[in-house]
Amino acid sequence: MTIEAVNEAGARSPRLKLGMVGGGRGAFIGAVHRIAARLDDQYEVVAGALSADPERAGASAADIGIAPERAYADFRTMAGAEAERPDGIDVVAIVTPNHLHHPIARAFLDAGIHVICDKPISRTVEEAEDLVRAVAKSGKVFVLTHNYTGYPMVRHAREMISAGELGRIRVVQAEYPQEWLTTPLERSGQKQAEWRTDPERSGAGGCLGDIGTHAFNLAEFVSGLRVEGVAAELTTFVDGRRLDDNVQMMLRFAGGARGALWSSQIAPGHENGLQLRLYGEKGGLIWHQERPDQLRFTPYGKSPQLVTRGGPAAGSAAAHATRIPAGHPEGYLEGFAQLYADTAALIRARESGRPPDASAALLPTAEDGLRAMRFIAAAVSSSRDDGAWTPL
Amino acid sequence: MTIEAVNEAGARSPRLKLGMVGGGRGAFIGAVHRIAARLDDQYEVVAGALSADPERAGASAADIGIAPERAYADFRTMAGAEAERPDGIDVVAIVTPNHLHHPIARAFLDAGIHVICDKPISRTVEEAEDLVRAVAKSGKVFVLTHNYTGYPMVRHAREMISAGELGRIRVVQAEYPQEWLTTPLERSGQKQAEWRTDPERSGAGGCLGDIGTHAFNLAEFVSGLRVEGVAAELTTFVDGRRLDDNVQMMLRFAGGARGALWSSQIAPGHENGLQLRLYGEKGGLIWHQERPDQLRFTPYGKSPQLVTRGGPAAGSAAAHATRIPAGHPEGYLEGFAQLYADTAALIRARESGRPPDASAALLPTAEDGLRAMRFIAAAVSSSRDDGAWTPL
Amino acid sequence: MTIEAVNEAGARSPRLKLGMVGGGRGAFIGAVHRIAARLDDQYEVVAGALSADPERAGASAADIGIAPERAYADFRTMAGAEAERPDGIDVVAIVTPNHLHHPIARAFLDAGIHVICDKPISRTVEEAEDLVRAVAKSGKVFVLTHNYTGYPMVRHAREMISAGELGRIRVVQAEYPQEWLTTPLERSGQKQAEWRTDPERSGAGGCLGDIGTHAFNLAEFVSGLRVEGVAAELTTFVDGRRLDDNVQMMLRFAGGARGALWSSQIAPGHENGLQLRLYGEKGGLIWHQERPDQLRFTPYGKSPQLVTRGGPAAGSAAAHATRIPAGHPEGYLEGFAQLYADTAALIRARESGRPPDASAALLPTAEDGLRAMRFIAAAVSSSRDDGAWTPL
Amino acid sequence: MTIEAVNEAGARSPRLKLGMVGGGRGAFIGAVHRIAARLDDQYEVVAGALSADPERAGASAADIGIAPERAYADFRTMAGAEAERPDGIDVVAIVTPNHLHHPIARAFLDAGIHVICDKPISRTVEEAEDLVRAVAKSGKVFVLTHNYTGYPMVRHAREMISAGELGRIRVVQAEYPQEWLTTPLERSGQKQAEWRTDPERSGAGGCLGDIGTHAFNLAEFVSGLRVEGVAAELTTFVDGRRLDDNVQMMLRFAGGARGALWSSQIAPGHENGLQLRLYGEKGGLIWHQERPDQLRFTPYGKSPQLVTRGGPAAGSAAAHATRIPAGHPEGYLEGFAQLYADTAALIRARESGRPPDASAALLPTAEDGLRAMRFIAAAVSSSRDDGAWTPL
Questions:
Q1: How many contacts (CB atoms, under 8 Å) link B and C?
Q2: Does the predicted TM-score (pTM) go above 0.90?
Q3: Angle between the A125-138 and A366-384 helix axes, to the nearest 10 degrees?
Q4: In chain A, which residues have their Cβ closer than 8 Å to the Cβ of D303?
Q5: Burial class (CB in 10 A: 0-12, 13-18, 19+), D312
Q6: Does B300 touch chain D if contact means CB atoms closer than 8 Å?
Q7: Residue C291 near chain D (CB below 8 Å)
Q8: What digits encode the pLDDT tens for the residues D212-258?
């Protein structure tokens, strides 16, 4: 929502009390979550288990202004203690390596605390299924931060397709190339590279799980279609690497659309090249993450158009996720913040018994997380089976 | 500073206490300042005179969580009261229309409170000169939010030129086209258009003052050169508009460089097209605000290169202003936030008697504001004098 | 070769006498071949069987200045008669629909006349094998106009990779999307659409044979690698269409590289979007046909560079195919003309017993045509076999 | 005209007999003219005075297939002899350095021979005036090769503006930066650099005359407006250079439009960066020479559109100058060839007494050449007069 409109909309409710698990000194995604939480002024971080090492946990908590008595070294202790406190946290953000997502989410859901969880939801399909059940049972909000769904023009693309502006979708080309693992960075001591290439902490997919799932999630989110089968080829190019670093895939969507997915972490020249291209009977659409504020839209038989965030063709879904005028770039942090803002609205609605805003329907759920785990499992299975078409 | 590095750097100091004048319901730039202040977690807004209308001032303050007793309707009252309080504000942000910048800044400087002031610094050269003196006398920090200087790649461009990578600069082409005033929007009741085309509130320049000054400031900031004369042609194309909406200008820089500046608010197709191009004896450099994370750099005799924020060629100035990895776009709000973060560091250094960080030297000052007012005056004078070369 | 250098190189030999089969009134590619032949002034069209309809053949010949007695209605008659004439043609250009390529090429090779043949070489693998043998037996020049290999920056890309600038190639992404068959254009009477969607005239591949083969040829030409297997999914989206209009494919290259190929004729927004992207251990490279004069080259760990035709980083292979300075765009016709110019040089060398220039090694051969036919056959077979990996 | 349409249109007339003055071994623009003449198959070069040195003239003629008896060393001899021959040339192309354009053009016009002359028309306003009179008196066709007017999308831009699609034009920004004279190349023996920086051979303008005039011509051609005054600053940055290498200019157009013109030959990063941007009451338009096949068109209040050569929004003027389908790039040589093709049509119409085609009105004339000379004179005068507004 534009910041003028936010102003006119009147009083901000008191900030939600946010806890965090993971995200201590030296972490990346935890700090992203904290900026995202602050940006639209809906949260205050008041408790955390930022590290499993008690000393580091305490120091990290002090860094970000958490009171010492709410700096925990253990997430279970934190869940219990915060659930007991009259001023306990409303919601927890889980920003650990992947293998811990499931147990932490379970602990907080079981304690009656809303959860914001970094993706992927878990390491296995089974864990994901367990969380889907746990969320349903808890009645709590569970949001998975597939953050690219927070970009205004991604939401606009979804809205255009849903409104039929492209006609029936025929082809979906999703890709996510990066360059950062071109060399064996994990052997240099770089923490991010270490755990992301370690099957114990990442799960069965390397590049596949880390970024291929983003491309998969986005393809389904925008197209409104479901992938029903994949034929995949996972490759590890860097000697000694324990997980795939390049993924080729053909896609079959329910209803007959076809597509491809390429994700790679050994593609020099691509910093964060997530791109989605969709083609329907009536038009085509291209979105690229490195230029997130525009869509290239070609209604068949007309000139290509550049649809911009804040521009004349942007609709209500884009407007909802837009803070500042066209031509003033919003980026990755704003897209991430949108998930936090919409989650705050959903939590407030849930707490007060009001029906949620329309934006709540756009928030990635535990079911979306489960789909991504099935996608990983299907791709790994297909690749082992020499590329045989494998259902999700 | 990358967010991992921030984490490693250890404990955040307690948030600075920020007051705000202007920026009530329906305002734009005030909300931008508040996001900028929050983003790097260095400030908390605790007091405000958000509107001259007491009722609106109170409601607006409540919206953003200001306690009722610190919601003022009058900036002088606020300056006095906050100076008295033991928990009074450390710094005030001035986000009113232009004509109020000078009296408000004076009031807070005189009360011993640091000032962050939206650009332009004032309506006239005389007021700007007065503020330069007042700042010097006060010993307080005064930062003018020429926000485009906060972009990492703008700072990197400055650093490259300062290091001689382009050789002696010969030509500087600055431009800032927009489209939003193509029609007489100010007669439709749009508040932004109203005051920005009103000489009583904006000063002697319309498009010139609103955005031409950004282009001027950026040209000097990046090139390290001083404009010593302008030959200008100001035009008003929209019937009945009271200030210029298109500005052509030739520039002479001290030392012999030449250039041009074009700013326009009637240029359909440009949302916020601030662009700076510099050419030296050894190379050329292009930066465009709508794609702020990259520079196009051509060392003469070699292929053009795309230097990216977070990429391998970005230097220390860019790194200081970089939060997240290459390819994850940062935008307008992050650039604006950089001024707030660097101002916080400068205030903390000043308060503690420590020497300021290197970044402090990049913050736009009252002197920069005065130069911009002289630039406006020279351009208006030149245009009235049929384009005669006019010194700054 | 730059046109100044051509001048300095001294006297042009007399023009080669060119015959043409196909390319009468209303045809497209024949006219392209004629411009390509004229552009570098190495050929004069002096005979033709431009249409199988005698009246149309005569009128079409008159259009382009062919003497009436050398306007044939039948290619076999033409081959015989021209072989007999003391001033008979040196070389024939074959520009008919695909199914006629084989018999015509055979007729002229058997008559001892050099052949320039539009792609694909034939309708079937068997016909292609026959032509490979016929070429070898004839001792004549046979060039297949995979015209995209004539672009200077395509040749430069090949040269860079051959020189090891990218290191060992790991991933090759080839794509060729177009939009022109989004609707059932072949039912509107459009001639091009008619025969290209007709298996009798086109062969077993629709989009696959028409443009997928260009992408395949280019991937091998530039990478220097051989595709050893494909897993393909051919789809026909337009109701009633008789051949595929969208092709997804995974690729395995000899030596371990992996890749994907997408070609589509139902992708709104793409006019002629042939693109090749290659990633090696040391760098990445991108070329796009719609901006043919540049390569985007990223040496891993450095900034991306824009290598331009005529620019400082272009090497000898690019220079050979460059006529005019950097920044003065050369396009499709010039790239096509390069094949004609190099073929002229090869014919002159062959005729005079001189060894051919280096450029001769770049000309697409009958063997290349045969590989493309095997590629089509493998893709069709794989798709019928539910995407099973199929060797070429 | 698309090449299929050319085919359908039926018989090509016999080639026009073309003579050439200048363009011998080592020359650049002469070879461009010859390709342009060949491309659409309307001319055959049959005579020439390619060099003032008899030996070089003979050798150069032999290079391009001119019979020895029609290889002249002196243009006056050539004009006389060719006028006498029953098979004498129909038209001459003048491709010498600038200072010879006037005497050569006079000689051929006086001999009753049509003239195609490279720009600029002359060295002085007086010479240009003389040629305007001579053309009128001769009744012959005189075409000045301001070649950028031959680009399809330049003509389409003109057609759009003429049709009112942009409304009344307010602002015209023309620029033409190059990098090739960043260093004192003229002292290295490079012929092009030598004569283009020599006032004896080039005239009063350096960069101004060489490329500034192209930008000026294009601005008037596309906008349909006339520049009525300029305020200019000419600068020479390279030590020892005898003419300007950077030009800044403000423009006033009849009717009230305003604009700027920048041309530079010391701007690293620009190969041939001719760009034209026009803004009217209803929309804006951008064309860039390095991507000539597209226009960026923004109807005010709508999304920007990419209008492409051969695409759905291209009109009749573009279609006339289009040979091949959208997405198959046409470039500099094709644009140049368009002037030759249209000149051939005009000569044929003139010779046969038929009214000329619509395209004839687009061909640059002697009057256009005179305007460019007045533009040069006004800019030089303004610059000497410290940038005073100077009428054309």
A1: 30
A2: yes
A3: 170
A4: 297, 305-308, 311-313
A5: middle
A6: yes
A7: yes
A8: 999 999 999 999 999 999 999 999 999 999 999 999 999 999 999 99
